[in-house]
Amino acid sequence: MNLQSLGAAGTVTGSCHFLTLGNQQLLIDCGLFQGDDALEARNREAFPFAPSEVSAVLLTHAHLDHVGRLPLLVRRGYRGAIYCTPPTLNLAETVLLDSARLQVESYRQEVYKARRMNREGEVSQPLYDEDDVHRTVALMRPVLAFGQTLTLGNVKVRAERAGHILGSAYLILDSPDGRLICSGDLGNRESGLQQDFTLPPEADAVLIETTYANRTHRPLAQTLDEFRDVLNESVRLGGKILIPSFAIERAQAILYYLKTLMDAGEVPRVPIFLDSPMAARATHEYFEFGDELITPVRESLRSGEDPFRPSTLHVVTSSSESQRINRYDGAAIIIAGNGMLSGGRIQHHLKHQLWKPSTSLVIVSYQSPSSLGGRIVEGAPQVQVLGEEVAVRAHVHTIGGFSAHADQDDLLSWLDCTGPAHVWLVHGEPDVMNAFLPVLEARGRVADRVPQRGEVSLTQTHFPGGKPPGEVDESRRLVVQAE
Ligand SMILES: [Zn+2]
């Protein structure tokens, strides 16, 4: 049972785990690195295996940092099946097409600029285009259903509910080498639209995400009170209320909460612009797979209501319409991607609004330390947006409780069920993982951080203190959102 992590080892993006298990060579997720240039450069690295020799790819969920390198894998020769749950297939297609379009668009812009200096040859090609995405989607098999078993050679795979986003699963892999559980991203049991994750069985080894392994989320009721107060305060300022949001799950949850708060009369019915075509498309899947969602949402859908449509909602489609929002006078809520402010339509809203004291920036998502969002949350007085210096005069609010990720209590309650399994930490910043190791040790668990390079035997290797040698980079601090 050997593992080589090609991402999400000591960072929270680029999830991609290459497993040698039984008679199979499996890839769990194949996500994109997102963040600063150094991280994004890692997307171009060669895979340390021949893509054509991988037996199968298994997906935990459709977030870009878990699926975003799949078209690259296919471009480099992978022709096997990509197994996932039905919602993951639909959402992944949306996510990957968007990613391909953004890359091609930004390539064209870069070439246009470089041409003036006769340097167009230096611009990096897009990682992939829409054709690669179509070839990838053709390989996807939405046959993973919660609780059912898929047989791949002498490996049996079972998907279970992870409660993170629509269709998200954790995977139980049984082989002659033992049982391995891969958590994917686990959900926050107190928040969001998803039903809680189910509890896993005992295993020999566990790969667990650690995004928020060093903190406890505040209760959802408190978070909603805080959200309501921030919205009311922001409406009084009379400016734009920017809510950067990931297109999947967070956008739908925010729409659902806005509708609930406005219907209850707790927030004034100001216009809401959903300025994210991808979020609008993803919302259709929440209708399609509505039976997966928490009871009140499910019931609302069954009664023919639209729980994701506050009465003042405008769904913005074209980019010219998106630009016109800036000319709209008065308070209005703008929900736009992407969640970490590192691209997408939120950027032009930031350029036009961030310098105004009447603007409110309401952060409802995780911000990686190196992202634009991370720098704003840390209090940068001015930032670069779309090539221009913009002063940060807006009121910046961070609301941490909406996380779609498990907190420490959630992770421990899930991990406690896995018995004596050797615990391998992935998908977390190094200092978060280092804080989590002694917590696990105190519970009698054997735990290690997955090394960023090289192969480890999941049932045997143990690094002293749980940390692979020479990989701790204390300069990369986690941005802890305000409670
Ligand atoms: Zn995720």
Automatic annotation (TrEMBL):
GO terms for molecular function: hydrolase activity; RNA endonuclease activity. The keyword NADP does not apply. Residues 251-376 form the Beta-Casp domain. This is MBL fold metallo-hydrolase. Residues 454-474 are annotated as: Disordered. Residues 13-235 form the Metallo-beta-lactamase domain. Pfam families: Beta-Casp, Lactamase_B, RMMBL. The lineage of its organism: Bacteria, Thermotogati, Deinococcota, Deinococci, Deinococcales. The keyword Hydrolase applies. It comes from Deinococcus irradiatisoli. Keywords: Hydrolase. PANTHER family: CLEAVAGE AND POLYADENYLATION SPECIFICITY FACTOR FAMILY MEMBER, INTEGRATOR COMPLEX SUBUNIT 11. It comes from the Bacteria.
